Amino acid sequence: MSPLSADRKVLVIGGGAAGNAVTILLRRAGISVDLVEARQDWNATAGSGITLQGNALRVLRELGVWEQVEASGYGFGSVGITAPDGTVLHVQDDLRTGGDDLPATVGMQRPRLQQILIEAVRASGATVRLGTTADILDQDDDGVSVRLSDGSEHRYDLVIAADGLGSATRAAIGIADKPEPTGMAIWRIEAPRPTGVTHTDLAYGGPAYIAGYCPTSDNTLYAYAVEANRDRASIPPASYADEMRRLTQHYGGFWPEITAHITDPAKVNYTWFDRLLVEGSWHRGRVVLVGDAAHCCPPTLAQGAALSMEDAWVLAQMLTASGTWDDALFQAYYERRIARVRPVVEASVQIGQWQLDGVRDADVPGLMGRTMTMLRELP
């Protein structure tokens, strides 16, 4: 620990993948970190499954949690393309974007990943306040004054806003960008894994734009179906299982076995696809955005969590390597990240738009290949 690190204090707002990751890395450098999370349960039970590409695994290894992730998830190295009736059309090896010493992909239960990160944050010695939000009172060249929802006021050298897609901090510091729907929505559920499911399979066409699944452990997978978005108010939550089953019951292969488990509407998640890319800078003064607060994209390339954790890794590297935390440093962080994030956001949106527009000769494999090759490079 350097004397400089010991004197610095950072507030991280939001305990998702990006907020947890940057907390772990800054604490490792000896920097004092307070993490506040609005949800009392720290999102420990939210979500069904997550697909982690190699570049996400690379960051998780840097966080020191790769062994737990490897033991908890399901690693694989290929993706299958099937017809709606289940006929396998093509199986392609995935690019190992995290390097040849990591799997191409690991699927895992999202709550398990969150729990692994929570345990690492706790072990780091960070101060954690759950059920707590933060308001920026004022800031100057030396720091930021913050009032927490418990009424206490604090002074920080830096505030890192990792409070997600609907970031209140982003708006509070004067960044007007907001997420915009892309026109698609996804139904997701966790289900038992049929024995023959050993990688992601994707069916294009049929009642849904995409019907797919990803193994998340030896015993589980998460399944999803993508359609045009609809007014949420027109879909009663009690009908969620019926709605998802309406889409998936027409698919063959492993789908009949999966669809048989789509019975409990409380276990079905319905989410619109959004896009967001804050341009120009990701900071105002000493408040800096990371993760979904700065950018998000549809999961067509499975890069949302990966990009968010990369933000955390890069920002932590830059903060711990510099003796001066100022506009120049924060702008350099933005410029380093935007060059990598923008093509992923644009590619993810483009793939979905081609489907919405019914473009049959779109070069989806080419676009995916170029984007994933770029991600193999260190962020």
Question: Tags for this entry?
Answer:
single chain; 379 residues; alpha+beta; 11 helices; globular
Textual characterization of the structure:
This protein has helices spanning 3-6, 17-28, 54-62, 66-72, 110-124, 168-172, 240-248, 255-259, 304-321, 327-357, 364-376, and strands at 9-13, 32-37, 49-53, 74-76, 78-82, 88-93, 105-109, 127-130, 134-139, 144-148, 153-156, 158-161, 180-192, 200-204, 210-215, 220-228, 269-277, 283-284, 287-289, 295-296. With 379 residues, it is an alpha+beta fold. The model has no long low-confidence stretch (mean pLDDT 96).
How does the helix and strand content classify structurally? Answer: alpha+beta
Q: Percent range for helical residues?
A: 25-40%
Spans of 5+ residues with little confidence (pLDDT < 50)?
A: none
The end-to-end distance, rounded to whole angstroms, is 25 Å
Computed CA radius of gyration, to the nearest angstrom: 21 Å
Global outline: globular
Give the overall average pLDDT. 96
Please outline what is shown here.
The protein has 379 residues and is an alpha+beta fold. Helix content is 34%, strand content 28%.
Strand-helix topology:
Layout: H1 3-6, E1 9-13, H2 17-28, E2 32-37, E3 49-53, H3 54-62, H4 66-72, E4 74-76, E5 78-82, E6 88-93, E7 105-109, H5 110-124, E8 127-130, E9 134-139, E10 144-148, E11 153-156, E12 158-161, H6 168-172, E13 180-192, E14 200-204, E15 210-215, E16 220-228, H7 240-248, H8 255-259, E17 269-277, E18 283-284, E19 287-289, E20 295-296, H9 304-321, H10 327-357, H11 364-376
Parallel strand pairs: 1-2, 1-12, 2-8, 5-14, 12-19
Antiparallel strand pairs: 3-7, 4-7, 5-6, 9-10, 10-11, 13-16, 13-17, 14-15, 15-16, 17-20, 18-19
Helix pairs in contact: 2-5, 2-9, 3-9, 9-10, 10-11
